[in-house]
Amino acid sequence: MAELFDLPFEDAEPAEEPPHERRVYTVSELAAQVRALVEGGFGVIWLEGELSNCRLWNTGHFYFSLKDAGAQIRGVMFRSAARSLTFEPEDGLHVLVRGRVTIYETKGEYQLVCELMQPRGVGERQMAFERLKKRLHAEGLFDEARKRPLPALPRKIGVVTSLDGAALRDIVKVIRRRFRNAHLVVRPARVQGEGAADDIARGLAAIARVDGIDVVIVGRGGGSQEDLWAFNEEVVARAIAACPVPVVAGVGHQTDFTIADFVADVRAATPSNAAELVLAAKSEFAARIERLAGRLRASVRRAVDTRRASTHALEARPGLAGVPGRLASMGRRTSDATHDLRAAAREQLARRWRSTRDLLKRLEQREPRVRLANATTRLVTADARLRAALSGLTAHAAQRLGAQAARLGALSPLAVLGRGYAVCWAGDRQRILREATPDLVGQPVTVTLHRGELACEVRAATPPRAAGSTMTGNGVERLE
């Protein structure tokens, strides 16, 4: 019961807290987690501000700061994205950028990785247009000296435009009406929206590789400035300049001007006008040829009449009265001399041919291949004779060698031993015993047989000849 009344009036003992677990981060771990939070929290954003500290490095990366009245953020535009800039960024310019906020862990700074940058405010596209126009003009892409004339009658015409637009239908209609034999090669391309400029540039490069292309038409129908903006991109301008054949730009209407119009070899007011400029009317072309042919015929007739009148005037002079007769006589003499000259030339040619033929025969006899064949034949014959003689000598020598070997074998001591004879050596094997003497008694002797030897000791000696045995001239005793 005491516990019930004590608790409300007395402080309870505090419960024991568990020990606190301390988490220690490295600087890199903290920076990585902050970076993950920042990038995951913002994603892709649009940001508006004023450029400052603009620097374009030799690597192609563009570094800058974006600021307003209260703050600033560092930014970077890597080379792949910086190539898409349609204007030249500079300090103080107000821009709109798209990118991702991230943390540069090495320095512990947050920054913006920019993917797209546009001028901000009224006339931003016009500003980009003027900047690009000024830069390309300074490079000489607008110079009249580099622009090429259109071919008089092109047979193969390339067209880079959209398949769905009215421009292609207008171009085909005009060309078919003027010259149905013309060959059209169409390379479809997007002419509006994101990526249209790159597609147009690829189309120009592709159609320029087609064999026999004489001229290229690039363009589209009318539209707003935004619709026509793809033809204001630098990549399209450089693709037109790099095209190996003349290019006609027909973009929009008469009042529309694009960078492509300034770079192209010829500017057309509309796509239809581009087709008209590329291909004059067939009847006009034929009429022009007929006019030129008539002028040429008239000029030739005038020249002939003038020469004929001069000739008649010369013939009427007293000193030239017999000129036609003299000319005829000289003509006959010239004909005779020509005949004699041809006959002499033929005779001379025949002699030269006979001499050449004789020389060819002599040369054939001395030709290395013929001489080599003859020498080969003689060599084969001599080789056969030599082999036959050598075989005879070898056989005769072998026969003589066999006879000598037989005689030598008959006289060889080994052959004698083979017939049952033996050789008796003194104990020191330095001399052969030829006769039995008393001093040999008790001495060791060695007897060589046909196969092997016998070590013997002399017990008795019977000089000079024992009964029942014969001695050979070589001192070899033969036992009967």
Give structural notes:
This protein is of the alpha/beta class and 480 residues long. Among the domains are: 27-121, Beta Barrel (OB fold (Dihydrolipoamide Acetyltransferase, E2P)); 154-284, Rossmann fold (3-Layer(aba) Sandwich), CATH 3.40.50.10550; 416-479, no CATH class. The chain is 45% helix and 19% strand. The chain contains 13 helices and 15 strands. It has helices at residues 2-6, 27-42, 79-82, 124-139, 166-178, 196-208, 234-242, 259-263, 271-278, 282-315, 323-365, 368-411, 413-418; strands at 44-56, 62-67, 72-77, 94-104, 109-119, 156-161, 183-188, 215-220, 247-251, 266-268, 423-425, 444-448, 453-457, 469-471, 477-479. The chain has a 5-stranded mixed beta barrel. The longest helix has 44 residues, at 368-411. The model is unreliable at 1-12 and 473-480 (pLDDT under 50).
In short:
By secondary structure, the chain is α/β, with parallel strands linked by helices.
Name of the level-1 CATH class of the domain at 154-284 = Alpha Beta
- The helicity comes to 40-55%
Largest sheet: 5 strands, mixed, barrel
How large, in whole angstroms, is the Cα Rg? 61 Å
User: What is the H level of CATH, i.e. the homologous superfamily of the domain at 154-284?
Assistant: Hypothetical protein af1403, domain 2
Mean pLDDT: 83
How do the strands line up in the largest sheet?
Answer: 1-2-3-5-4
Overall form: flat
What distance separates the N and C termini?
158 Å
Q: What structural class do helix, strand and pairing data support?
A: alpha/beta
Find the CATH topology of the domain at 154-284.
Answer: Rossmann fold
Number of strands: 15
> How are helices and strands ordered from N to C?
HHEEEHEEHEHEHEHEHEHHHHHEEEEE
With helices defined by DSSP (H or I, 4 residues minimum), what is the helix count? Answer: 13
Low-confidence stretches: 1-12, 473-480
Task: Please state roughly what percent of the residues sit in beta strands, choosing from under 5%, 5-15%, 15-25%, 25-35%, 35-45% or over 45%.
Answer: 15-25%
Q: Which architecture of the domain at 154-284 would the CATH scheme give at its second level?
A: 3-Layer(aba) Sandwich
